[in-house]
TrEMBL record:
<dbReference type="InterPro" id="IPR042080">
    <property type="entry name" value="RNA_2'-PTrans_N"/>
</dbReference>
<dbReference type="GO" id="GO:0006388">
    <property type="term" value="P:tRNA splicing, via endonucleolytic cleavage and ligation"/>
</dbReference>
<comment type="similarity">
    <text>Belongs to the KptA/TPT1 family.</text>
</comment>
<keyword id="KW-0520">NAD</keyword>
<keyword id="KW-0808">Transferase</keyword>
<dbReference type="InterPro" id="IPR002745">
    <property type="entry name" value="Ptrans_KptA/Tpt1"/>
</dbReference>
<dbReference type="GO" id="GO:0000215">
    <property type="term" value="F:tRNA 2'-phosphotransferase activity"/>
</dbReference>
<dbReference type="InterPro" id="IPR042081">
    <property type="entry name" value="RNA_2'-PTrans_C"/>
</dbReference>
<comment type="function">
    <text>Removes the 2'-phosphate from RNA via an intermediate in which the phosphate is ADP-ribosylated by NAD followed by a presumed transesterification to release the RNA and generate ADP-ribose 1''-2''-cyclic phosphate (APPR&gt;P). May function as an ADP-ribosylase.</text>
</comment>
<protein>
    <recommendedName>
        <fullName>Probable RNA 2'-phosphotransferase</fullName>
        <ecNumber>2.7.1.-</ecNumber>
    </recommendedName>
</protein>
<dbReference type="Pfam" id="PF01885">
    <property type="entry name" value="PTS_2-RNA"/>
</dbReference>
<dbReference type="InterPro" id="IPR022928">
    <property type="entry name" value="RNA_2'-PTrans_KptA"/>
</dbReference>
<dbReference type="GO" id="GO:0003950">
    <property type="term" value="F:NAD+ poly-ADP-ribosyltransferase activity"/>
</dbReference>
């Protein structure tokens, strides 16, 4: 990889993290607003970001297209942009209930396991609990917080008791909570 390409990737990663902050948690940091569905005007976002970063529409398109977690979406005409999930600010992503796979996974740090067995998985400061369709993704998510522990979630039972699930634009399964009775320790199942 050329030095310039590497520098661009590192810079794009910084910009992407900042975009994540403003589109998911703190739009006021750069003086933008989100509509009720989490969208903001692309031109205004670029204008506000340009005081901090070297950015234009093409760079923003590249950041969105190459984001490994596919965190963002454009409207079809590229005039609006929003984060796909992970909001701590209240937005309606217009998600419809979906039938999830029979089992989903949640990765966390070992130090949180006791509390999760007591209270279940709570959304904390986010709008939803995030669940993964595979163990590898759950392990990757959990590893950000320390030694990993993966829970298996019995979504079949949850559905039978009326819990709803949603699938975000970027493939993350979402629900309001996961009570402890639906949890199994995946880690112990594979050891």
């Amino acid at each position: 990889m050329k030095k310039k390409e590497l520098k661009n990737r590192e810079n794009y990663k910084k910009i992407s993290k900042f975009i994540s902050l403003v589109l998911r948690h703190s739009p006021e940091v750069i003086g933008i607003s989100l509509d009720k569905n989490g969208w903001t005007d692309t031109d205004i976002l670029i204008k506000k970001l340009s005081s901090k970063f070297d950015i234009d529409l093409n760079i923003l398109k590249e950041i969105v297209a190459t984001d490994e977690k596919q965190r963002y979406s454009f409207s079809p005409d590229f005039t609006k942009i929003r984060a796909n999930q992970g909001h701590s600010v209240s937005v309606d992503l217009e998600l419809l209930p979906q039938k999830p796979p029979t089992i989903l996974y949640h990765g966390t740090a070992q130090r949180f396991v006791g509390g999760i067995y007591e209270k279940g998985i709570q959304r904390q400061n986010r709008q939803y609990v995030h669940l993964s369709k595979d163990v590898e993704t759950a392990q990757k998510v959990g590893s950000r917080h320390g030694e990993v522990f993966v829970f298996q979630i019995d979504t079949h039972k949850m559905l039978s008791e009326g819990y709803l699930f949603y699938l975000s634009e970027n493939g993350v399964w979402l629900t309001d909570e996961v009570p402890a009775r639906f949890l199994n320790p995946y880690n112990k199942l594979v050891e």
